[in-house]
Amino acid sequence: MDPEDTSVKFNGAVWVTDFAAWTAVSANFDPRVRVTTGVRAEYYVRPNEFSLQPRGEIQVKVADHWKVRLSVGAFRRPPEYQSEFLSETAHSERSKQSIVGLQYEPRDGVRVQASTYYTDRSALITRNMDGSLGNNGRGKTTGAELLATYRGARGSAGSPTRTRTRRASTHRGRTSACSISISRTA
C-alpha cells in the first residue's frame, strides 16, 4: 500500500467506534502535598484491543505561590489515520510520559508554569518491508513548555504558550519544533 497512491477514491463515511472510561482521585497528604492518581480504560474496536492506562501526579507546595509538580502516565493511540485504519496488521501505539514542572501563582487568576517532559514511545506504526503496516517503531520525545494563563474580570482570559520539542525515532529522522500560541476568551 503506497501512501502517495491516490488512484483509489472512497466516497462515504467510516464510523470508528472506541469505548473509554476513566476515573481519578486526589488526596491531600499534608497541607503542602497533593497526590492524584487515576486510570483510563479503553477498548479499540477495529484492532480488538483493550488497554488500561494508569496516570498520577504529585504536587508539592515549596513556598508561598510556588509548587513543584511530577506527573507520570501511560498512553495508547489506536490506528486511526487512513492507511492505518484500513490495515489489519497495525495495532495501537504505546507511550510512557514523565513531566517535571514548576508553577507560580502570585494571585487568583494568574499562573505561570514551566515544564520539561520525556516520552518513551514503543510499538509505533511503521511500514514493513512487504508494504504492510506493523508496530516495529520506537522513539522518544523530550521537550520543555512555558505556559502563562490569566483569568480576569468578566470572563476574559488569555494563555500564551511557548513549547520546544525534540523528537527522535528509529523509523524517522530527528525533528524539532517550536510553537507560540496566544488565545483570548471573552
What does this structure look like?
The chain is mostly beta strands and 186 residues long. The protein has one helix and eleven strands, in the order ββββαβββββββ. Strands 1, 2, 3, 4, 5, 6, 7, 8, 9, 10 and 11 form an eleven-stranded antiparallel beta sheet that branches. A hairpin with a 5-residue loop joins strand 9 and strand 10. The longest helix is centred in the middle third of the chain and has 5 residues.
Helical fraction equals under 10%
Beta-strand residue fraction: over 45%
What is the average of the pLDDT values?
83
Specify the biggest β-sheet.
Answer: 11 strands, antiparallel
Question: How many strand units?
Answer: 11
Q: Gap between N and C termini, in Å?
A: 47 Å
Which residues form runs of ≥5 with pLDDT under 50? 171-186
SSE pattern? EEEEHEEEEEEE
- Using only C-alpha atoms, the radius of gyration works out to 20 Å
Shape: elongated
The DSSP helix count reads 1
Secondary structure class reads: mainly beta
Please supply descriptive tags for the structure shown above.
186 residues; mainly beta; 11-stranded antiparallel sheet; 3% helix
Give a topology summary.
Layout: E1 18-30, E2 33-44, E3 49-63, E4 66-77, H1 82-86, E5 93-107, E6 110-127, E7 133-151, E8 157-158, E9 161-169, E10 175-181, E11 184-185
Antiparallel strand pairs: 1-2, 2-3, 3-4, 4-5, 5-6, 6-7, 7-8, 7-9, 8-11, 9-10
Short description:
This protein is mainly beta and 186 residues long.
